[in-house]
């Protein structure tokens, strides 16, 4: 033992063979200033043209950074994001956008993995996005847990982006819609958008997709599956998942029932007859038949022009949505409105003022503020 060594009992002769070294002196912690400088350098924003050039080349890192700007609420980021989107817009649109919904546990992730691999195996580029306004990452939000799509996450032709974090449905949906534009400009010609089939988010997904797929389970009543009739009416295809093992027969029975049920719905403007199929996402059975339906749908609606008509309608819908969202935020974030709102809310609650007069006064105040 060298003299320099501190005394460690383990270094005594009876413990021969064992040598305990002195600890290593820890380096000085990095000063706050250099950390700041490092982070600033890391966070340095590119110019809109740099992002756009990268996106058009299919650079995933720049695409992801641009999507982060889209999701950011900072004004500086939003302005840059809007410039990027505007420049990407002429390069977008050349895709098929497919919405996928179904209650938690129906097998959406498993299906997207199987369906997604089927698509990329055919040489296509696939982006998987999600709309989940209620999500808190810790609660296992949809797509948040990438391990659920292991094969697809490792596929260089697939890009998976979880839902923008919780916010108003309008806000979350707008961000997803803008992300579609960026993904398409980056060459992703197939877009899957997942949502949980329990609330209004499927209306939002429906308003940004060409084809709407509803996943269902056999043997569970509609109430149990939380699927509203309106959502079934939106579907271009219903697929009864988990049609494997001793569930096959039940799935086939459900298929007949759903076929009868959707027959009663009014004819779709697209002139498309929505079908009911069975599949097993887990065993990758029936995936090809679903794909065939998507292709057939695209062909038919492109031929009868509905495909483009729907997209145009969606564009104007999103214009109005964005205006409404902006106006609302502007109104409710205004400090004078906030203050008066509290007072008038109290008046309304104590029957001192009617809701309509209170609303009128607030709107009056707002118009004077402008
Ligand atoms: P999600 O919540 O809708 O995304 O559902 P998941 O994809 O996470 O699937 C929920 C559970 O159902 C998982 O345990 C899956 O392994 C299982 N599952 C999904 N698809 C099938 C299927 O086709 N057959 C069977 N037997 N199980 C499936």
Automatic annotation (TrEMBL):
Q: Return the GO cellular component terms, semicolon-separated.
A: cytoplasm
List the PANTHER family. METHYLMALONIC ACIDURIA TYPE A PROTEIN, MITOCHONDRIAL, METHYLMALONYL-COA MUTASE
Q: What is this protein called?
A: Methylmalonyl Co-A mutase-associated GTPase MeaB
Organism annotation: Draconibacterium aestuarii
Its ancestry begins with: Bacteria, Pseudomonadati, Bacteroidota, Bacteroidia, Marinilabiliales
Q: Which domain of life is it from?
A: Bacteria
Task: Return one GO MF term.
Answer: GTP binding
Similarity comment text for this entry = Belongs to the SIMIBI class G3E GTPase family. ArgK/MeaB subfamily.
Sorted UniProt keywords: Hydrolase
Residue ranges with Basic and acidic residues bias = 1-11
For region Disordered, the annotated ranges are 1-23
